[in-house]
Amino acid sequence: MESLDRLTAHLKTRLVDLNKAKEEGVKIVGYTPGGYLPEELVLASEAIPVCLVRGGDHSVVELAGAYICRWIDTFCRAQIGYGISGDDPYYSIIDLLAIPITDNHIRAISDILDYNTDLDIFPFGVPHMKEEATLRYYKFGITKLKTRLEELTGVEITDTKLREAITLCNRERELLRDISLMRRSELLLLSSRDFVSLCHGSLVADKKVMVGILESLCQELKEQKAPTNKAPRILLTGSTLAIGDYRVLDLIDNAGGMVVIEDFAEGIRPYWEEVKPDGDLMQSLADCYFRRRVPPAWFRPGKERLDFLIKLAKDYKVNGVIWYQLMYRESYKTESYYFPDRLKREFGVPMLTLESDYGPAETEPMRTRIETFVETIRR
Amino acid sequence: MANYYDRVLNLCGFEDEEIKKEKPRIDKAFQKLEIGPEDMERAEEWVTKYHDIDLVGVKKILRAWLLELFDLVLARDEGKKIVYYGFPSIEGPGMAIKTAAGEGVYCSCPDVILCHTLGQIFNKINPVLEAAERGGLPPGHGLCSLQQVRNGGMAKGIIPVPDLITGSSYYCDMGSKADELLHEKYGHKAIYVDGSMDSRWGEFPDYPAEKVEFLGGQLNKLFATVKELFGIEITRQLWDKAMATGIDLARAIYQLEQLLSADPMPISSAEVELAMMLAAASTGRSMTEGPEAINRLCQDVKQRVEKGIGVVEKGAPVVMIFLPSFSDPSIAHMMEEAGLAIRVIPSSLALSVDKPTPQPTLGEEIADRQLKMGAYHSSFGVVKIVENAINALNADGLLWTYLYNCRPMALTSHFLKKWVEENTRVPTLALEMDIYDSRSYSAGTLRTKVEAFAEMLRARKVAAKA
After folding, report:
1. Contacts for A313 with CB less than 8 Å, ≥ 6 apart
2. How far is B172 from chain A (nearest CA, A)?
3. Whole-number Å distance between alpha carbons of B255 and B109
4. Can you say whether the dihedral through the CA atoms of A199, A203, A208, A210 is positive or negative?
5. Is B407 exposed, middle or buried (0-12, 13-18, 19+ CB in 10 A)?
6. Could you tell me which residues are beta bridge partners of residue B207?
7. What number of other Cβ atoms are within 10 A of residue B464's Cβ?
8. Contact at 8 Å (CB) between B42 and B123?
9. Among the listed residues B119, B129, B127, the one whose alpha carbon sits nearest the alpha carbon of residue B42
10. Which of A36, A73, A104, A337 best tests the B interface by mutation, with the highest count of B CBs <10 A?
11. Which of A304, A366, B328, B345 is the most exposed place for a label (fewest CB within 10 A)?
């Protein structure tokens, strides 16, 4: 599809464009994925937000071994490896690394990069429960971030600028949501790999360019004559789906399965909710990013997310769920024990749990398990 | 007629008369615990080999732990309401609940009790861990073994299903998720006291007022839930009363810690750990039996100091350990056999903070104090606690026994050693271990590393003298 080609071309030169912008004095603000960093604040401060969401490479995880033990989530160790080694060029161009502290694994990135590198780190807290008090604390965190961004860029984040950024980001979310909802159809409109590429692209691309690409893609999808999808329909969920960590998607595809919806704490942009562009805008951001956002597994209790997964499974008429988690992320591991029973009871479909440390030796056992699962749900 | 457990209980400080009187409770508790005659030989060997039962004080402390175990196991049968808290957790709320509710409520950290009894006395914690591995917390995933002990204890019916669980959501993610798993299985009420360790490196001891408001509000939420469930109100006055209840125990522990500066080290760190952790796990027997038991241990230790008796050679390198094993005393003995005088981080040091700033609510007052102490503030807060403790103890080395399956500890694995060595010049061994489950981290597996470290410290001492 032409729009996807445009995205690929844009991302190919993205680093060059960012370096050029930096030379011109524009600040680049990196952040860890997870959907708790309101990009609107960064855009309103006239800086460029860049999500640091690369993964899938075990050699970088090994690099982190000199700075932290192996019992921390694989993706987070990868970020430590990238941050210290400079193997991910995005780490070298950022002026500030904003880290919403969601759990102890993300805290490890913050502490270890803060201690071992010269990166300018700005952590802020994401509580683990939805209450008035926790919402207040989250708002306190993003308000501190607003002040820090104003200091960094020398630009005052006015309501006008913020509202403009909210409108732009809402449009991006709306388009991603529209495309995602199209995949409820029986038609084979867009592969999961392509949809994931859109999500990943949106975390790095220029926001206006991205919105343009999504708009034209929406149009293309509406106009195309797609064949009917006969493959078993799969909901893919888990902790992190990083840029470069495409093995699980490819294996499902090769096995004849079709991922029709994804839900990840990190790597898939939360696109279901929009920021209300009126009233106290900081409150609106907190309301959307924290209160209305379907939380990841490190929220306690995790019922809201598990209810949402069952709803997604029903809405997208899936035949099975694949739960893909990275090693040592204990919140996901714990939920993966009791969720399959609920899923079976309430929707009657099975679940396959896969774990990865980005190791190359995992591929073939993973392939066998996925092939068996897809065969099982095909019948 | 003699009971199969008389000898072991005698070794653990029970008098015959007491055993006779408590027999129905002991029988019932042991039945639930699946402890029978076949377990006694192993328990006797374990207790005599790894606990200093020549000291009356040690026997009394073991007795206090066993009485707490019986109270825990029988709490539901004896008609009590049950509250469990987690480890580690903010000190005080458990004690306050117990003080307010009195005998009608049983309140403790059950997993820590099982480690110190099934582990330290009966050497039989593994079946509990295995039950948890079958019940949602499988091996090989770095899941917290203390949570496995709780999960397995409930799965085996050893510890009763509580009326309320309160999780330390301000510190670790695993405790709250593991409690959530138990809630899914048993349906009891779980309340998570949330927080966020979101400080920058180097920020401690500073923190914003909003952090106090957040954590304090969560503690107030816990107190409100307790009021709703049990009809008891945790007021400032009651809090002060609860804290006063613990003063005797705190004084006894402080006295013990002072005696440990003797050279040679008069008792094993295994016994010190037994004494110090009683307060963390129990709000019952720690108060009724704890002060007398530890005061008696102090007398015993004083006599040893006067006679120059020690568990290691005079002049042995003094090494601070952050957390010794809760369930396996053979690890502490292995370290001492390697020639190290092991000092547990003094609790008195951790508590010695400035008076809290006046706060509008009790919860905020507690939160403010906790943030000042450091452990729940940030990794840098932990680093500073360790640095201060090393300086206070004038330690020759640090054994940074980080728990591999505890994320807040595991993330310190490398930088803590680096920081301590750069800032105190004290050699540090970052020793990956599991203080609750020693199946993969036994004394045998750790011995070579500890011996090499001990050898290096001795060489340093010799070189310093020369």
Report:
1. A235, A321, A343, A347, A349
2. 7
3. 25
4. negative
5. buried
6. none
7. 8
8. yes
9. B119
10. A104
11. A304
β-bridge mates for residue B318, sequence order: B341
| Structure token pair of residue B98 | 């117990």
- Put simply, whether B141 touches A (Cβ < 8 Å) is yes
Nearest to B410 among A69, A124, A140 (CB): A69
Using an 8 Å Cβ cutoff, are A262 and A196 in contact?
yes
- Residue B252 to residue B274: CA distance in whole angstroms: 13
d(CA B219, CA A228): 55
Per-residue pLDDT of chain A (379 residues), as tens digits, is 899 999 999 999 999 999 999 999 999 999 999 999 999 999 999 999 999 999 999 999 999 999 999 999 999 999 999 999 988 999 999 999 999 999 999 999 999 999 999 999 999 999 999 999 999 999 999 999 999 999 999 999 999 999 999 999 999 999 999 999 999 999 988 999 999 999 999 999 999 999 999 999 999 999 998 899 889 999 999 999 999 999 999 999 999 999 999 999 999 999 999 999 999 999 999 999 999 999 999 999 999 999 999 999 999 999 999 999 999 999 999 999 999 999 999 999 999 999 999 999 999 999 999 999 999 999 6
Token digits for A219?
Answer: 């149009």
β-strand B428-430 against B341-344: which pairing, if any?
A: unpaired
Which A residues in the span 317-336 are in contact with B, Cβ-Cβ below 8 Å? Answer: 327-328, 330-331, 333-335
A 10 A CB-CB count for A44 gives 27
Q: Would you call A66 and B177 a contact, using CB atoms and an 8 Å cutoff?
A: no
Closest Cα to residue A243, out of A91, A31, A7, A54?
A54
A250 near A132, Cβ under 8 Å? no
CA A183 – CA A198 distance, rounded (Å): 14
User: By C-alpha distance, which of B400, B405, B441 is closest to B146?
Assistant: B405
| Of A278, A293, A204, residue with least CA distance to A16 | A204
- Whether the CB of A135 is below 8 Å from some CB of chain B: the reply is no
Sheet holding A320-326, edge to edge: A258-266, A233-240, A320-326, A351-356
How many C-beta atoms surround the C-beta of residue A228 within 10 A?
8
Interchain CB distance below 8 Å, B413 and A136? no
ipTM: 0.96
Instruction: Tell how far CA A219 is from the center of its chain.
Output: 24
Give contacts of A 51-110 with B, CB under 8 A: 66-69, 71-72, 101, 103-105, 107-108, 110
- Kindly give the pairing relationship between strand A28-31 and strand A320-326: unpaired
Specify the amino acid at residue B22: E
Segment B160-163 long-range contacts (CB within 8 Å, at least 24 positions apart):
B160/B72, B160/B73, B160/B75, B160/B76, B160/B77, B160/B82, B161/B76, B161/B82, B161/B186, B161/B188, B162/B82, B162/B83, B162/B84, B162/B188, B163/B81, B163/B82, B163/B83, B163/B188, B163/B189, B163/B229, B163/B230
Q: Helix axis angle, B247-259 relative to B236-245, nearest 10°?
A: 40
Contact (CB, 8 A) for A120 and A96: yes
